[in-house]
User: Fold this.
Amino acid sequence: VPLTAATPASPAAVAQTSLDPADWNGFRDCAHQLLDAVLDHLQGAGAGPVWQPVSAALDQAMRRPLPLAPTATTEVARELAELVLPSGVGNTHPRFFGWVHGAGTPGGVLAELVAAAVNANVGGRDHGAVRIERQVLAWAKAIMGFPPQSSGLLVSGTSMGNLVAIQAARTAALGPMARAQGVAAALAQRFPGARGLTAYASEAVHACVLKGMGIAGLGSDSLRLLPVDASHRLCPERLEAAIHADRAAGFVPFLVVGTAGTVDIGATDDLAALARVAAQNKLWFHVDGAFGALAILSPAHRPRLAGIEAADSLAFDFHKWAHVPYDAGCVLIRDERCHRQSFAMAPNYLERAPRGTAAGAPWFCDYGPELSRSARAIKVWATLREQGLERIGAAIASNCELAQHLGRRLAAQPGFELLAPIPLNIVCFRHHPAGIAPDQLDPHNRELACDLQESGVAVVSTTRLRGQLALRAAIVNHRTTASDLDILVDALVRAARRRAAR
Amino acid sequence: VPLTAATPASPAAVAQTSLDPADWNGFRDCAHQLLDAVLDHLQGAGAGPVWQPVSAALDQAMRRPLPLAPTATTEVARELAELVLPSGVGNTHPRFFGWVHGAGTPGGVLAELVAAAVNANVGGRDHGAVRIERQVLAWAKAIMGFPPQSSGLLVSGTSMGNLVAIQAARTAALGPMARAQGVAAALAQRFPGARGLTAYASEAVHACVLKGMGIAGLGSDSLRLLPVDASHRLCPERLEAAIHADRAAGFVPFLVVGTAGTVDIGATDDLAALARVAAQNKLWFHVDGAFGALAILSPAHRPRLAGIEAADSLAFDFHKWAHVPYDAGCVLIRDERCHRQSFAMAPNYLERAPRGTAAGAPWFCDYGPELSRSARAIKVWATLREQGLERIGAAIASNCELAQHLGRRLAAQPGFELLAPIPLNIVCFRHHPAGIAPDQLDPHNRELACDLQESGVAVVSTTRLRGQLALRAAIVNHRTTASDLDILVDALVRAARRRAAR
Assistant:
């Protein structure tokens, strides 16, 4: 005889402290109206300005005193629709080229709706979102050529993914003792007299790798930033030389970081060559593939990523080129044990059981810094399944073709010049009017970027290449077409002329 | 003359790679149907089993090969509604007492819908979600008595909040040099000959603080776990003695961690006393207030938290007792400069501008490990505004009263015994049938927890108190009423009888 199903509490009792709607029908009407506003917004992704300063109404609404009393759901929903929905940074718009942000999909929004209702903490225990995350990780391994027995974790993004991988690499170098006794004691025991651990990447590596080294207590200076070649890639010979020099100087090299898609220009290191150097020197090989790794979904770009399957760890984002709504990153680690040893704990109040709610081991909290974890797997799963990997890959390939188109347009445009090769989807260029004083070039282009952004026509960002300020157009939106880039070029030409006329 | 608004790309061109719906009307119908399924699910939060094993259908659906081709949105939506929605761990149900998970609100779900459509990366730049996060942080400071010029960050949860605070405390102790040169070099320079940094907390501290110490390279062993008194609180005299002993032994004490709401039984340290000891010894005082800090919203419980406003840092969760959907944590840091020095970077591709899209400094990426950050502020803002702090506080107070009710019921129930005081909302107890062999008590209660979970009537978890396995009922749900607890007690009695009859 099973335990009998219990009768629910009386509605009167529930009303005492429940934060649920008192009027469910009214709430339902409000929800459907808000959904229509959301769908109108999504359907109009290409309408209106790409970006505009935060509205005075939103600015005012975000300076309120503490909300002690309740506010009607309809009023909160009105502000969500009228003030919040139009206040994005622009990344859903086909002429947002500012930073490497994904564009989202309407299907991803529906998946988030369901995830919010499920309201799961995916730190552990046995429930649906755990299974969904395992499915997504199995797919991620299959996409990237990692073995099924490797481990993985969905994270907020590649900053966190790199942080997790650096911890695992630290464990591989110093043993689990580093976690318990600290890096100084572990280093002294395992490598008596050594000056410290050292890691290697190209100077084009993303700053979050430096941040992760600092957080780990190893020091960001311990990441050696090696010069890149003309194609903005790390030279394997230089890497090998740096490793040997550090060893000779009393350091303990432990980690090589390759990049698939540098943030500046989209270059991808020769991953196979870096993997070989790392293996020969017994170093951990990590790949930061934040946006570039998913180019593997395009048959045309797949060869560029050869060697990624040989990495010890890999971090990349689903919220960039797979267009899953923010946030959705992923880290894969070849050595599951080393990964687990870097994070696992089993306090009494998190005891795992062979059956019941506390089953489902291993728990994801054993593979990263977080115990509270959102069910971001649901939107990743739904997006990959609804779109299919081939279509996502085709959108990626299209972005790269469009970058070539933009490069050709700018190269042919008097007064504009390209500042870097275009290996993927990023175009770095500047306006160089005849006769401009050399010290005015950078300020001129910086102002040009702001002018364009404030116009609402398109958004590009800036970076620096070999000391020169560059305008940077990153094409990451499945909605972008060639005509959007033609509009960008026309707007740049007009903005440059107006600045010149001052 | 402003730059003229551009004409949109032709629809035909957009269709080439767009991942948007080909049939918007069909998509809209599907979305409204899914919303109704979500609302039905939310409205029926108290119906059906609290938890059940993952369905065979979901299990099967999560073992698919790589999704190369697209799947119809209606089919994905069907699986979201039929397989995913009912697969939660149970925390939305009024008889989930297993772990300290919030219960969510329908309004929070609507806010997530909007946030997914906005699809913002809140790492930086000037847009709505940044302003909303600043509003939420201003409210958090006002709630907790932190000064307006202190800094803060929304994070995934208190595990991440504690990690951020430990980094800031490390910077306060060793200077920004620790980030660049590593903890070993920084310690050697600032405290020549010292054996290491040490931190202090009660043995009831959450394991994620140990994890954060390990990640920081300081070593989890460097967190001294001090015995608690009869009320499960850290004794200030013991703290002082431990600090002095470590100093005498050549260590550098740097951090005291107080807890507001221990995970085991809900005890809150004497925060004012710990703040005094920390100040007298010039140590950083951090409070882990994961769920307990928000008890400050209840006038009845507010006095227990006296001293929280004196902390150097505080981490707590909105997804627990404020019922914001996962994930939504918060960390506040009194010393903004120290916080920023622990994380800020300004690489070329993240240059901030005085106007345009790259305005909005300071950017949130300068205050934590993440550059990709979700717009979780939107759901926090909407929930606090819709519900109002007074109602949230009333629900918290009700949970604590219900814990007393459950305690009285269990104390009066033959064969059951309480194992700890009930200072807040957690009841630790066990079934102790007459004549049971002492070595059978723990296994008996462990099986009882599983029996109850599998029955679907209620979920409690387990922990260990003074070496004894305890059943643990954490009451964190605004939907829970006294009758839910009566049902729990009846179900426990029945399950215990059935086990005894075997």
User: Anything to note?
Assistant: Residues 171 and 342 of chain A are 6 Å apart (CA to CA). The mean pLDDT of chain A is 95. The two ends of chain A are 87 Å apart (CA to CA).
